[in-house]
Design brief:
Elements (H helix, E strand, L loop, with lengths): L1 E6 L2 E7 L2 E7 L3 H15 L3 E8 L10 H7 L3 E4 L14 H4 L1 H4 L5 H6 L4 E5 L3 E3 L4 H8 L4 E3 L8 H4 L15 H10 L8 H4 L17 E5 H7 L19 H9 L4 E3 L6 E3 L15 H18 L1 H9 L1
Parallel strand pairs: 3-4, 3-6, 4-5, 8-10
Antiparallel strand pairs: 1-2, 6-9, 7-11, 8-9
Helix pairs in contact: 1-12, 12-13
């Protein structure tokens, strides 16, 4: 089945129902609109459904009715029953207690999507090109594809011996890692003893596929991940960051994840003065500054939608 997608009066190609999108929304309604509208504008031909997962708790009175209504039947809306924030959870409970599991980031879409491919995005990404076409090509034969590494925090990167293109081959022993991390301590080195498994120190603690622009082959990934497999769900807050424990588990189970540099197609935290999206969620001044930039972006590039925002 094919159909076209229309944004602000323009039609953007044929819709090939091959990829679902999962977006976990906590605050930033103007950012969220920019994310989804720019993604559809550039990659809409690949997208079937958008799983719009709105956290039960929202900062600063954030509300998303306008963008959800604008996208209409493209959206599958879900509000998790439990607000988890960044809570660390006992992983065994994720096998059997579905309300808890479905309150993890992206997990409802992960289990409910009927497409083979699931694209995960943060709600503060500006898309500037068709990101899904090259990612679908790169994904073939892999469990997932996306930008690998938080190398700016990593001791191995500081030492010049590991990178997103070499993380598969650089596999230090635990004692080697201890020496390296003490010689080149990262910004979060004090947490490493709590998260590094001495028996399986690889991948390194800062290493993950960043889920702000991530394409997953659900046919493979579901079988490897709870509740069907052994890997901790990608949205669980284990290890250093969202997705680090899932990355560790699936890599040690023998799966492969392809590194894709997405900078040519997407800018994460594009309206942030800090280079990341998290600080704005506790800093009202930073939050309002970024939302104002997103508001102006909507005014300039999505005038039909902007008029609806003004009416609310």
């Amino acid at each position: 089945m094919k159909r076209s997608v229309t944004i602000d009066g323009s039609r953007f190609g044929n819709l090939m129902e091959s990829v679902d999108v999962a977006i976990q929304v906590y605050g930033k309604p103007h950012h969220t609109a920019v994310t989804l509208l720019s993604l559809l504008r550039h990659s809409g031909e690949h997208i079937a459904k958008i799983w719009f997962i709105e956290e039960r708790k929202q900062p600063f009175g954030a509300e998303f009715t306008v963008i959800r209504n604008y996208l209409g039947d493209r959206v599958r809306y879900y509000r998790p029953p439990i607000w988890l924030g960044s809570a660390q959870l006992p992983w065994r409970g994720l096998h059997c207690f579905r309300p808890l599991r479905w309150s993890l980031r992206y997990q409802y879409a992960w289990e409910k999507s009927r497409q083979r491919y699931l694209y995960i995005t943060h709600n503060d990404v500006l898309y500037t090109g068709n990101i899904l076409a090259p990612m679908l090509d790169r994904l073939q034969g892999h469990l997932a594809a996306g930008p690998v590494g938080q190398c700016w925090n990593c001791s191995a990167s500081a030492a010049g011996i590991c990178s997103p293109s070499s993380f598969m081959s650089y596999r230090p022993t635990y004692s080697e890692w201890l020496r390296l991390s003490s010689q080149y301590p990262g910004a979060r080195a004090d947490r490493y003893p709590q998260v590094v498994d001495p028996d399986q120190p690889w991948p390194l603690p800062e290493c993950r596929v960043n889920e702000w622009t991530l394409l997953v082959d659900l046919l493979k990934a579901r079988a490897a991940t709870m509740p069907l497999g052994d890997a901790v769900p990608i949205g669980a807050s284990f290890g250093m960051d969202t997705g680090t424990q899932w990355f560790h588990d699936v890599m040690n189970a023998g799966h492969h994840i392809a590194h894709v540099d997405t900078f040519a197609y997407a800018r994460h935290a594009w309206a942030s003065s800090t280079g990341g999206g998290f600080p704005a969620l506790s800093d009202r001044k930073e939050y309002d500054r970024g939302e104002a930039l997103a508001f102006e972006h909507l005014r300039t590039y999505y005038p039909d939608f902007f008029r609806l925002v003004q009416k609310q």
